């Protein structure tokens, strides 16, 4: 074999994680061993790859940058910007575009993709996916456009019954979690555990909220997030979604989830059904876990609201996620390799931009943003100051217990009574030692 042609070696299901990308990159190296050497051959030795990129770190880019392959681009439309092709755009397309700039946005091969066909595909895809697969533009991963990095999350391997008072994040190699698969973009390859944790509180001492993003049956999910807040840090205890809409099984599950985590508040978006969801949820909450249900309405465009709410909190490493939540989230990819990724919370966070229609599904991400927005005043807290105030409060309470018994004994003597020692009480917060 002197010429090998590989067609579509990259699909979204086999390159969605960094580990899968490495497997594909290793597999294609076998072609160099199969091809015969140039010596004594009539035809030149060639390896051709035909395909479209599915991620911003496409295997085709690695072939050019790491193995010296030459590339050529034939986008479906005449592009507006040429810098992303790095001088490798088809010369005929480039020349036609130079001669007639009005061709921008028109199909390069109308017999294969007509103008109407391209518009239909563009309407059914996210802008990032369309730019990748039809525009062949892989220059999408920039810090400005993608405000959330999964590596900025602080992952805790706890059951959620107790929460840390102070958490210090670090991105050092020693704190990377190799057992959790990270589906971030580019260099966003690892989750991180905290470098330092000091003090623990019972979950009952924190404020726990369930936020729900309602949706009817069909394509979108009814998504929920259980979030705890203490000392300016936020802890994602649970996150999920269902396509069954307002079905009784879903509402029952929400009520039982609220009871499991001891939720203090339930917040639901009222834009869907104008408050109908809250009325349907109330009977189930009264049966299992009676708490108040509040409604919120949003007038800002969703993408801007999500970026403005999630970006600052995550970039400051104040959002902590239980490892169990991330494992359950990644399990969706195994159950539905082709479409499960779009409903993953990690995928939605890492692909979020301020551009309209940047995500196919944003329900789980939206439920998290609703919960964080409810605790907006907590963002001004300092975790070290909160810890010091709690320690001072506990000291005052211990002193009051000790003083209450001493003052009571003095009052009895002043009135001529004989003070009776409290056999079952505490002295200075410590029970009497009986020998």
What does this structure look like?
By secondary structure, the chain is an alpha/beta fold. 36% of the residues lie in helices and 17% in strands. The protein has 13 helices and 15 strands. The chain has a seven-stranded mixed beta sheet, sandwiched between helices. Strands 1-2 form a two-stranded parallel ribbon. Helix 9 (302-315) crosses helix 12. The model is unreliable at 424-435 (pLDDT under 50).
- Uncertain ranges: 424-435
How many strands in all? 15
The main sheet comes to: 7 strands, mixed
Please give the order of strands in the largest beta sheet: 3-13-10-9-8-11-12
Percent helix among the residues?
25-40%
Rg for CA atoms: 29 Å
Count, helices: 13
Order of helices and strands: EHHEHHHHEEEEEEEEHEHEHEHHHHEE
Strand content range = 15-25%
The termini sit apart by 92 Å
Q: Structural class, please?
A: alpha/beta
Categorize the overall geometry.
elongated
Mean pLDDT: 82
């Amino acid at each position: 074999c002197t010429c090998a042609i590989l067609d579509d070696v990259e699909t979204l299901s086999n390159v969605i994680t960094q580990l899968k990308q490495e497997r594909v990159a290793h597999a294609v190296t076998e072609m160099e061993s199969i091809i015969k050497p140039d010596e004594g051959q009539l035809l030149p030795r060639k390896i051709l790859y035909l395909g479209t990129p599915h991620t911003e770190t496409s295997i085709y880019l690695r072939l050019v940058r790491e193995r010296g392959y030459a590339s050529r681009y034939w986008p479906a439309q005449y592009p507006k910007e040429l810098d992303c092709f790095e001088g490798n755009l088809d010369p005929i397309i480039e020349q036609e575009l130079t001669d007639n700039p009005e061709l921008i946005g028109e199909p390069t091969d109308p017999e294969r993709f007509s103008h109407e066909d391209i518009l239909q595909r563009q309407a059914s895809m996210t802008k990032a996916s369309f730019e990748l697969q039809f525009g062949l533009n892989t220059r999408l991963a920039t810090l400005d456009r993608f405000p959330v990095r999964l590596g900025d999350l602080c992952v805790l391997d706890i059951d959620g019954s107790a929460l840390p008072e102070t958490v210090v994040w670090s991105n050092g190699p020693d704190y990377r979690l190799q057992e959790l698969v990270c589906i971030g973009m580019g260099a966003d390859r690892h989750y991180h555990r905290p470098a330092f944790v000091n003090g623990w509180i019972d979950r009952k001492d924190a404020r726990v909220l369930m936020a729900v993003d309602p949706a009817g049956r069909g394509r979108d999910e009814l998504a929920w997030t259980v979030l705890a807040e203490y000392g300016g840090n936020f802890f994602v205890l649970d996150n999920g979604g269902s396509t069954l809409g307002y079905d009784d099984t879903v509402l029952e599950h929400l009520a039982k989830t609220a009871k499991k985590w001891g939720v203090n508040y339930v917040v639901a978006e009222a834009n869907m059904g104008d408050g109908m969801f809250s009325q349907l949820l109330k009977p189930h909450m009264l049966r299992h876990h009676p708490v108040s249900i509040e409604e919120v309405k949003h007038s800002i465009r969703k993408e801007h609201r999500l970026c403005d709410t999630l970006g600052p909190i995550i970039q400051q490493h104040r959002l902590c996620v239980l490892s169990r939540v991330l494992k359950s989230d990644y399990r969706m990819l195994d159950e539905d390799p082709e479409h499960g990724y779009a409903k993953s919370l990690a995928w939605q966070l890492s692909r979020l931009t301020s551009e309209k229609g940047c995500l196919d599904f944003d329900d789980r991400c939206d439920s998290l943003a609703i919960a964080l927005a409810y605790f907006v005043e907590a963002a001004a807290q300092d975790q070290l100051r909160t810890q010091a105030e709690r320690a001072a409060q506990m000291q005052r309470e211990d002193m009051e217990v000790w003083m209450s018994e001493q003052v009571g004994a003095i009052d009895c003597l002043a009135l001529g009574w004989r003070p009776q020692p409290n056999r079952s009480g505490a002295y200075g917060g410590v029970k009497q030692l009986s020998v």
